[in-house]
Amino acid sequence: MSEAAAGDGVAAAEGAGRGAPQGEPVDRLEAHRTELTGYCYRMLGSAFEAEDAVQETMVRAWRSYDRFEGRASLRSWLYRIATNVCLDLLKGSRRRARPMDLASPSSVDSPIGTGLPEATWIGPVPDQRVLASAGDPAETAVARESIRLAFISALQRLAPRQRAVLILREVLSWSASEVAELLGSSVASVNSALQRARATLAASGDHAADAAPPPLDDAQQALLRRYVDAFERFDMDALTAVLHEDSTLSMPPYALWLHGRADILKWLRGPGEGCAGSHLVPVRANGRPAFGQYRADGLPWAIQVIETAGGRVTALQSFLDTERLFPLFGLPLRYGGDGVSSASAS
């Protein structure tokens, strides 16, 4: 769905909702769009599928609003609809993944290969599409951590109903009885599903966001400035200083990924030399710092999502579907368009 289509909101269903209430109900439904998009993104692993799922949720809610009897809260009712939409979408579909979930790291000399279909990959999502702009700081921190690409990848390992249970219980802090009512199940069944989901996540090495990091501090901001400066100047010595020894580089839709600073730098000096002269424009994605990368000719190349730890950059996650992703992030399809400027100049 295009950004313009998604922005039409519930009004797109107005003609279908014969006899549905006007005005205030639309505002009440739309007030939940951001959190529902975050929920559907965690379930589906795609910002575009999440927006489609929320749009379908809003359409169904609009059509049924005059029959909503208020036995449950409006929020619970919308989550029930969204869960059913997501479960329907997940029937028979293969799980989305990151390149490192599918194969061992590649060598620098490995051919880049042919890009795999979009449905193969977990995609990035702009923070503003899925995170509330205000709220309890602790809840906001958990929400931000629970959209990390690694955590979204771990969620995809779960059976769809287990996925819903874990997100509702451990990310959104619903009670077991609330989840059981939403799923039309029992508390015992919900607790059993949660136990199995936790075991699967533990085996994958990732867990729900119960130890979210603080917002970027001065040292982390300084590290990002050093990274941007080094990358835009394509200074390999400066990049050596900011990249962690065990850092990774991935580039969906290609399955190729690299592990280790030495291989990343060697790749940049060789197959990746086209990145020389790039401009980086700051955005926020998946609760992490990110950049829209434009090549020297001003054309978009990637959305980079950056992971940091211990004062170094630990992951460069580049998503190359620029035709869809740059509009999603509000970025023009040419550097300098609409007043966009580089991160180093901001």
UniProtKB/TrEMBL annotation:
Keywords: Sigma factor, Transcription, Transcription regulation
GO biological process terms, semicolon-separated: DNA-templated transcription initiation
Gene3D superfamilies per UniProt: 1.10.1740.10, 3.10.450.50, Winged helix-like DNA-binding domain superfamily/Winged helix DNA-binding domain
Disordered, as annotated region: 1-27
One Pfam family from the record: Sigma70_r2
Domain RNA polymerase sigma factor 70 region 4 type: 149-201
Listed CDD domains: Sigma70_r4
Domain named SnoaL-like: residues: 224-312
Composition-biased stretches (Low complexity): 1-23
Statement: the UniProt record of this protein carries the keyword Nuclease: no
Domain spans labelled RNA polymerase sigma-70 region: 30-95
Molecular function in Gene Ontology: DNA binding; sigma factor activity
Family statement: Belongs to the sigma-70 factor family. ECF subfamily.
Entries under PANTHER family matching the protein: ECF RNA POLYMERASE SIGMA FACTOR SIGJ, SIGMA 19 FACTOR
Assembly and interaction partners: Interacts transiently with the RNA polymerase catalytic core formed by RpoA, RpoB, RpoC and RpoZ (2 alpha, 1 beta, 1 beta' and 1 omega subunit) to form the RNA polymerase holoenzyme that can initiate transcription.
Designated name of the protein: Putative RNA polymerase ECF-type sigma factor
